[in-house]
């Protein structure tokens, strides 16, 4: 490929069935449709889309039945990992056409895709029926082995739970259980360019094992930026967003924060006389 490779990341769709509003307030279906339209109309268009968990709101089969045709509207391949709101079996039942996914929901839904200039590794960080995240010892061993197979290929890890404390009180009460063990593995594999996460519904970044853990905003609602230990579980309707990761073999990976929706502009900085005064 003689041009940059573009990876769009969206997260925390929280889709419901029956035209229901999430938490009685948020039109998550409408938000997802706007996100898909935006990505399809982008120029240059992203080469792929990765979705970092909480695909639906309660993990129900009818919610995935709504989600599948909406994601099928994307004019590029998309890759999914589950979040704490998802159900592994119902996800697999609905997305059997996503061949990269495991055939069985007997364990975590981890996967690898080697089809692009950057390697993709999806990690299922969910703990069934819990809010927080972890990777099992078996998953950590598998990840270490997978990374050792392709030490010279730039790699993106996609997982739902960020492996760090955010400072937002209610989100930190059930943290990533074994983040230190994951960080040791990442430190051994410098080809890991990013850990692409969701869950926190806000853009944020942290150094992690010599790489960067990068959190995507939600496609609809955002968690309130409240850095108090006693921060309550509140959300708001700040502009919905996404991340756009640009890989260039010479320049490396650059991650951009974008927003969905229409805003005034664009306006020029210059006219015929120079910088506009």
From TrEMBL:
Residues 7-203 form the Calcineurin-like phosphoesterase domain. CDD domains: MPP_GpdQ (cd07402). Keywords: Hydrolase, Iron, Metal-binding. It holds the Pfam family Metallophos. SUPFAM superfamilies: Metallo-dependent phosphatases. It comes from the Bacteria. InterPro entries: Calcineurin-like_PHP, CNP_phosphodiesterase-III, GpdQ/CpdA-like, GpdQ_beta-strand, GpdQ_catalytic, Metallo-depent_PP-like. Transmembrane segments: none annotated. Belongs to the cyclic nucleotide phosphodiesterase class-III family. This is Phosphodiesterase.
């Amino acid at each position: 490929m003689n041009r940059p490779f573009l990876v769009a990341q969206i997260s925390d769709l929280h889709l419901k069935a029956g035209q229901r509003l999430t938490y009685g307030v948020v039109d998550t279906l409408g938000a997802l449709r706007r996100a898909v339209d935006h990505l399809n109309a982008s120029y240059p268009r992203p080469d792929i889309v990765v979705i970092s968990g909480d695909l639906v709101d309660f993990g129900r089969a009818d919610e995935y039945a709504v989600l599948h045709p909406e994601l099928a509207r994307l004019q590029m391949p998309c890759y999914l990992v589950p979040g704490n709101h998802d159900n592994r079996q119902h996800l697999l039942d609905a997305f059997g056409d996503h061949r990269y996914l495991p055939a069985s929901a007997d364990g975590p839904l981890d996967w690898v895709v080697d089809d692009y200039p950057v390697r993709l590794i999806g990690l299922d960080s969910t703990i069934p029926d819990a809010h927080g995240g972890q990777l099992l010892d078996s998953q950590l061993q598998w990840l270490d082995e997978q990374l050792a197979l392709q030490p010279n290929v730039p790699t993106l890890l996609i997982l739902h739970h960020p492996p760090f404390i955010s400072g937002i009180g209610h989100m930190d009460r059930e943290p990533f259980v074994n983040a230190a063990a994951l960080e040791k593995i990442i430190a051994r594999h410098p080809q890991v360019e990013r850990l692409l996460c969701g869950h926190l519904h806000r853009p944020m970044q942290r150094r992690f094992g010599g790489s960067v853990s990068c959190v995507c905003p939600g496609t609809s609602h955002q968690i309130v930026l409240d850095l108090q230990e006693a921060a309550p579980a509140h959300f708001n309707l700040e502009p919905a967003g996404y991340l756009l990761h640009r890989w260039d073999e010479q320049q490396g990976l650059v991650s951009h924060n974008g927003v969905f929706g229409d805003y005034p502009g664009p306006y020029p900085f210059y006219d015929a006389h120079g910088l506009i005064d």
